[in-house]
Each structure stands twice: as structure tokens, then as C-alpha cells.
Inverse folding.
């Protein structure tokens, strides 16, 4: 049956899926009805569907920093739990997927709620591993600066366009660390795209902050408001939400409270602007990222599982 024949069933299953997500984790945002017409196939397993879509990512695309050039994405919709049907859907996908990209720069991608029970063994048995996590913080009322935030040899200030070179270098260091922990890629365009991100962050007046020591930038954090980051903040039902898109501290300045001070600035700004939540994405397997964000009060909301090749 052609994918378009499934329109009504997929819409109904998505509604049931969202009701189940609300019960599983009330902080989860609803997922959209998948684009059935643009799908390569609609896979069926015991009252659930998996919508297989494909996209080619070129080096000219910013997303090439974080994903393979050839991506097969599986969106699962089920009103009765995912674990019992996930293996069947993935096995069907593997049977009909065909040959991966000739250079091996290909991925199978599945994004699931972090609290979805029973899926980890199914995914691991089929070669998928957690690559990134979307994490959530419920924003507390504004907290005044403490003495710890205000003293020390490290100072903080708003970013300016003069900081672009330093921020680009910080982002490069962070990205290379993420790649080393299995999240992201180094591309020929990596340096130019990280500079573009630095330019955008430094032009975001009142949303980006620098930590510096002796006049030298050693860290950066940047927020995006609900409208600018609508593509990301829909991950949570808590609205309005802000997106913490950038946070990097040079290796020599870590473990001295620099990142903590920067994040505290972002948290206060979000509270002042009425945000109910902050979401961010971090490398799932990095012991630096996962530990740091957990200590700052964030918890996993969604997990992106990937198999390369």
C-alpha cells in the first residue's frame, strides 16, 4: 500500500501516541503527524507504525556538523508502548533500506522519549547507540547573585561582535570534544560554520555572555528565546521555553566554577523573561556534558539513537 493510503491511520495513531507521551512524562511536547506523502515507506507492526523518511545532508548544510550525509529516520507512532514493536519496525527498515552511502557516511536515526521503557536493549541489539540527549530544566524564580558568582579571578560580561574569533575557537574546542565522544562530525566546512554560529551568538544582544580571565575569553553561553528557537522548544510541553544553544568553556578553565557562573547568568535571564523551561542538546556519551548538566538541574527528555553505516 502506498504511504498516502495511511493518512487517517497515522493521524489517529499520532493522537494516541501523544496521549501516551503525556502519561509517560508530562513535560514532553507533542510530536507532529509525520509527513506520510514524503515518506519512503510506512512500516506496520501490531497496531503501530514506523514512518521511514530519508534525507541527504550536504557539507553546505549546518546540520552536517551533527549528522551523516545520508540519513534514514524512523518516526514511531504507537498508542500502547514502543518497545514491543520497535524491533520489528527496525528489522523491516533494514530489509528494505538498501545499500548505505558508498563512503559509509550514513545513519539510521530514531528519536525517543528518554523515559521510554524497554527500548534500550532493542536498540543496542541492532547497533544503535545514544548519541545526543535533549535535556530540560524547569526554570525557578529569579535567584539573586551570590558572593560566589560575583568574586574570583573570572569575570563575566555580555558578548560583543569583537568576541567572534574567541567564541569560534571555544566552539571548535567543544565540537572536537563532542566528536571524540561519538556526537557529530568534522567536515571541511566545520570552521566556517562554527564561525557563523559565533557571529550569530555575539550579535544576539542581551542573550550571550562571556567569561574572561585577564581579559581573555575562556567561556561562552548563549540563549535563544521561544520564537527564535521554536524548532527546539517544542520538545517540551512547558511553555514558553528558551533554548540554551551554546555553552563552552576552554579545557584549562574547567572545574573552577566558570561554566557554573555562565549557566547561572542564563538561568537568571530566562527567569526574568518569563520562561518556564530551558531545553538544550548535549552529547549523550560525554562524561563532561552529561555530568555537568545533571548537576545544573537538567534531566533527559528525549534521546536520539543512531547507527552509523
Amino acid at each position: 500500500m502506498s504511504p498516502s493510503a495511511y493518512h487517517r491511520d497515522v493521524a489517529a495513531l499520532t493522537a494516541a501516541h501523544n496521549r501516551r507521551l503525556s502519561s509517560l512524562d508530562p513535560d514532553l511536547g507533542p510530536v507532529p503527524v509525520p509527513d506520510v506523502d514524503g515518506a519512503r515507506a510506512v512500516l506496520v507492526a501490531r497496531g503501530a507504525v514506523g514512518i521511514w523518511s530519508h534525507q541527504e545532508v550536504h557539507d553546505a548544510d549546518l546540520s552536517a556538523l551533527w549528522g551523516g550525509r545520508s540519513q534514514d529516520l524512523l518516526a514511531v507512532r504507537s498508542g500502547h508502548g514502543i518497545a514491543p514493536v520497535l524491533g520489528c519496525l527496525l528489522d523491516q527498515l533494514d530489509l528494505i533500506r538498501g545499500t548505505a552511502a558508498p563512503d559509509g557516511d550514513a545513519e539510521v536515526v530514531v528519536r525517543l522519549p528518554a523515559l521510554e521503557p524497554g527500548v534500550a536493549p532493542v536498540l543496542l541489539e541492532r547497533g544503535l547507540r545514544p548519541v545526543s540527549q535533549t535535556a530540560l530544566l524547569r526554570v525557578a524564580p529569579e535567584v539573586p547573585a551570590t558572593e560566589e558568582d560575583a568574586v574570583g579571578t573570572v569575570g563575566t560580561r555580555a558578548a560583543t561582535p569583537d568576541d567572534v574569533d574567541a567564541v569560534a575557537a571555544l566552539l571548535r574546542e567543544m565540537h572536537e570534544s563532542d566528536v571524540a565522544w561519538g556526537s557529530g562530525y568534522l567536515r571541511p566546512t566545520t570552521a566556517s560554520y562554527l564561525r557563523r554560529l559565533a557571529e550569530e551568538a555575539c550579535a544576539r544582544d542581551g542573550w550571550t555572555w562571556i567569561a574572561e580571565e585577564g581579559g581573555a575569553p575562556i567561556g561562552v553561553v548563549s540563549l535563544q528565546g521561544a520564537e527564535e528557537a521554536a524548532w527546539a522548544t517544542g520538545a517540551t510541553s512547558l511553555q514558553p521555553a528558551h533554548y540554551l544553544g551554546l555553552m563552552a568553556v576552554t579545557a584549562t578553565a574547567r572545574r573552577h566554577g566558570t561554566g557554573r557562573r555562565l549557566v547561572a547568568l542564563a538561568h537568571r535571564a530566562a527567569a526574568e523573561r518569563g520562561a518556564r523551561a530551558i531545553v538544550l542538546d548535549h552529547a549523550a556519551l560525554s562524561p563532561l556534558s552529561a555530568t555537568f548538566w545533571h548537576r545544573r538541574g537538567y534531566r533527559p527528555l528525549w534521546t536520539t539513537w543512531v547507527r552509523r553505516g
About this structure: The first strand starts at residue 41 and ends at 45.
